[in-house]
Amino acid sequence: MDWLFFGEISLAGLAMGGLYALIALGFVIIYKATRVINFAIGEIMMFAAYLFLAFAGGMEMSPWIALPLAVIGGSILGGVIEKTIIRPMLGESPISVVMVTIGIASILVGLVEFVWTADPQLLPNFLPREPVFIGELYLAPKIAYGFLIGSALLIVYLLYFRFSRGGVALRATASDQAAAYSMGINVRRVFNMAWVFGSLAASLAGVLVAATGGLSPQFGIIGLSVLVVVIVGGLDSILGALVAGVFIGWLETVAGAYLGGEYRMPATFLVLAIILVIRPYGLFGTHEIERV
Amino acid sequence: MFRNILEKGRRLAGLGSLVAALTVAAPAMAQDKEPIVFGGSIPLSGVFAFAGIHLHAGLTDYTDWINSQGGINGHPVEYVMEDTAYEVDRSVAAFKKISGSSSPATYYGDSTGFMKAIASELNSQGNTLMSGASFATVLTDNETYPYQFIPGPNYSQMFGIILEYIASQGEGGDMPNVAFVYSDTEFGKDPIENGKARAAELGIEVVEEIVTKPGSVDVSAEVLKLRRVRPDYVVFHGYVLSPINEFMVQMRQMGLDTQFMGTFWSSDKLIIDKMGADADGYMGVMPYNYYDSEESGPMLDALRAQAEKSDPEAGYRPTGYIQGWFNAMVWTEVIKRTLDAGKELNADNMAEALASIEDWDTGGIIGIPVTVRDMSFPVGRIWRVNADEGRYEPVSDWIHLD
């Protein structure tokens, strides 16, 4: 066994897993507060990445100005979607709401094809290109710096949810909407805030992932593959999203390296199947008991 | 005398009028002949739209050009197409609709999946010859696909050309080694087994095989695998752009002096436009001369003139455009040969005419005369990116496989 190789592969997998965790966080925040599974999360990622391309590529802004603008653009898109499309669906069946998010995803794909064409794109380089070594272990610079930026946002989010007034309102609404409403929390505003924060996390992940692997109108498919992460971790668990994101990223990479690229997805779906059998609500998800 | 001159003048004027009338009427008479229809399932939207719009432009411009030349043996040409979004079911529906309403002599298929799916219907109808965007090896199986051909080398032949080039770079018996990197798709896997067999025949060691998801993926783990085997060449297949860029950039960051090569769909200018200086040195196999190459020839010049005429703002035309044009060029040659032989325009006769193509001068589209082998044109050339110039430059002679 080449332990150096295993170490490098593991490091790459863990770093990629950090980005998966960020996307999964976008899923979970929205689901936790509003009970909507947002199938358009990948397309929101894609939209933000295209915004970055427009700002940093087309308008030649500094990438460090383009990045926050693109992320804010993506989060505003999330807020607008919630307010104009999802909110009128309140009270409708969950399937209808899910179908609406799938429809939104298709519209976003059409929109970017219309504006930016269907050509594959590469984002302007904005991350350092010097190889990163941790001891003797090599890590691709884009992955390393992407992980650092993503981790910074994760820490900000965790602190915000733990200590801020808005974070407490969000957690309270997630725990019990009726009780939160009776305590004077503006639940509708919390719903909107959840979409904004969820989309913001996804948007940042979108730019970072596109910076590594390129961009096309089909980029949003990655959002669906991260659904595995969310189900393994638990749909309503932020901790689950973080742990499962890092684990699935590591597993995918190690399986790809030792078994071959065609075994990446089967390996993760095998884990998904096992978790669903043992803990249907995910590793850290809430086990809801319905009493009749 | 004056009357005499007037009389002669009247006769000359009458003769002139007759000549003028015939000159004007000849194309009109040609247009009176029954039109020949080029059909097409064209991916103007969807994942392949980046190429589809250029394929469509190439087919449209060729049709306009051939009609301006009097059509095919006096028959005007009509190009009838539908957008398929690169979905097999929509491509099949488009084929049924177009073949039901317009009886196309030839047809452009947008994918290997569609061309395989439609084969039994195509074979039973026996009216239409098909080619298209696919260079799949399987389509050159004449037993199963007797009415389909490849407008260039198939993917296995592309690998054969690449490997011949690599073998030619071996110095003093020191044969370079190679790694294959391909997408986990039918497209990606197509030439791998034949490529390995050909490499073995040439004495080239395949030191690693990497399979990835297509498109936007992190490949840092795969790059780590390649670092351990340090291949002299990496041959990509089954991609358009990503993740080729990441492999090249990361491997160069690691200090490897590996050279990178790819097949038709990953050898367009898109790589240069998107990667910039990082694309320098990338090599691709291409059966046609690039639009901005220094090569010329009557047909290549006509292509450039027609492209300029149809859209003066477009500038460079991608390889998809030339591929669309070349498809229609082959259809024209095949139809012409069939009509010249006095045969009915059906799939059997057109397939026979196609198989008869030998040492065909394509007017500069392909740099040497080409001969059809197993319903394909097994010819190509290796081109290398000169990033400073922003274009591909030839680094090998034309290679025509037997």
Could you describe the 3D structure shown?
The complex is a heterodimer of chains A (292) and B (402). By secondary structure, chain A is mostly helical. Chain A has one domain (9-219). Chain A is built from eleven helices and two strands, in the order ααααββααααααα. In chain A, a hairpin with a 2-residue loop joins β1 and β2. The longest helix of chain A is centred in the N-terminal third of the chain and has 32 residues, at 3-34. Chain A starts with a helix and ends in a 14-residue tail after the last helix. In chain A, 51% of the residues are buried. Chain B has 14 helices and twelve strands. In chain B, α2 packs across α13. Mean pLDDT of chain B is 91; it is low at 1-6 and 8-30. Chain B folds into two domains: 36-153 and 293-371, 3-Layer(aba) Sandwich (Rossmann fold); 157-286 and 383-400, Rossmann fold. In chain B, the strands form two sheets. In chain B, strands 5, 6, 7, 8, 9, 10, 11 and 12 form an eight-stranded mixed beta sheet that branches. Chain B is of the alpha/beta class and 402 residues long. The A-B interface holds A 2, 5, 8-9, 12-13, 16, 113, 117-122, 129-131, 138-143, 209-210, 212-219, 222, 253-254, 256-257, 260-262, 264-265 and B 45-50, 184, 209-213, 215-225, 227-228, 240-243, 245-246, 249-250, 253-254, 270, 274-275. Chain A: It is a multi-pass membrane protein. Chain A: Keywords: Amino-acid transport, Cell membrane, Membrane, Transmembrane, Transmembrane helix, Transport. Chain A: InterPro entries: ABC_transp_permease (IPR001851), BCAA_transport_permease (IPR052157).
